Each structure stands twice: as structure tokens, then as C-alpha cells.
């Protein structure tokens, strides 16, 4: 299955979810994240501000923002800038996502954990994004632990995802019922 087919299939499945199912799924996924050593040990965490079809991060951010240093991405041309989270300094940005404002950019090398949205993942940590490559460019420059989060049906079984040379895999995939730790072998 190619990436466009995966995007269409996941989009159709997401459209069937009720508001209650979305809330419960986010609660379960982020509860699993909270229990992970990667999250417990990290102080500086990059999150995403969720779109309506993504697992909502709002309650999770509210719960932990006084105990962890959260960062959010902001679209800057074809790249993402990383800025500290401050609820009072958010504004609607690209793609109708709330983004942090200001010029206090964070160094990507200081981020210890990155929680990454995607359309789909496979058991090797490969991901299908929305097709613009923002996260692939960002992930290529970091050694942080990369965690992909999604609904159970966003984990593609079988042959998985055909990764391209520029694609960057995540280290952990967390869904409502699973946490997969992927072992990447670096040369």
C-alpha cells in the first residue's frame, strides 16, 4: 500500500470516530506515554498542538506544563522552529494550528523527547506524514528520543510502510493498546 492509499484509509477511519472515542483514545495514549521511562526521564519535551483529526494534546499539555518544559513547533517556510510553550503566547499559525509566538527559538539539540504526530506508523518506526516533510527535516537534526502517537488503526500491519531515503523513523510508537519500542541499528 502506498502512502497516499494509507492516508486515504486512515482519514476514512478517523471520520468514523465519535467525540467520546477521540477523548478516550487520547487519554489512553497519553497515559501510556506518561508511564514510559522516556517521558519520566525527560525534562525538555517537544509536543505538537493537535489538529482536529489528531489525538488531542491539550489536556496532556495542561496537566504537565508546570512540571516539564514543553516546546511546540512553528512553521517557518519549509521548516519548523521550536519555541517554548507559553499558553499566553499562542496564535493561530500555518495550517490553522496554534503556534508559539516570539523569537526565543530553542536549540533542537536541547530537546530530550519529541512526541510526533503522523498519519500512520509501522512496526519498524517508519511513519507516513501529511506529505510536506516538516517533521522529517526536523527529526533528521536531533538525537532526542522520538515517540510517535496515534490510534490503534494508525499502526499499519503487514508489509509496513515503504520508507524513502529522507524519511526518519521514530523510536517508540504508542497507541491506545500498545507501546512498541523500535531498535534502530546505527552504523
Identify the strand order in the major beta sheet: 3-2-1-6-9-11-12
H and E string = HHHEHEEEEEEEHEEEE
Q: What class do helices, strands and sheet pairing give?
A: alpha/beta
Shape assignment: globular
Radius of gyration: 16 Å
Main beta sheet: strand number and arrangement?
7 strands, mixed
Low-confidence region ranges: none
How many individual β-strands? 12
What share of residues is helical? 10-25%
Hey, roughly how much beta strand do the residues contain? 15-25%
Give the overall average pLDDT.
90
Please tally the helical runs, counting DSSP H or I stretches of 4 or more residues: 5
Alpha carbon gap, first and last residue: 29 Å
Question: What would you note in describing this structure?
Answer:
Strand 4 and strand 5 form a beta hairpin. The protein has helices at 3-14, 19-34, 37-41, 58-64, 134-139; strands at 44-46, 69-76, 79-84, 90-92, 98-100, 113-116, 120-122, 127-128, 145-149, 155-156, 172-174, 179-181. The protein contains five helices and twelve strands. The chain is an alpha/beta fold. A seven-stranded mixed beta sheet has the order 3-2-1-6-9-11-12. A three-stranded mixed beta sheet has the order 8-7-10, with helices on one face.
What characteristics describe this protein?
single chain, 187 residues, alpha/beta, seven-stranded mixed sheet, 5 helices, 12 strands
Please outline what is shown here.
It is built from 5 helices and 12 strands.
Reconstruct the topology from this structure.
Elements: H1 3-14, H2 19-34, H3 37-41, E1 44-46, H4 58-64, E2 69-76, E3 79-84, E4 90-92, E5 98-100, E6 113-116, E7 120-122, E8 127-128, H5 134-139, E9 145-149, E10 155-156, E11 172-174, E12 179-181
Parallel strand pairs: 1-2, 1-6, 6-9, 7-10, 9-11
Antiparallel strand pairs: 2-3, 4-5, 7-8, 11-12
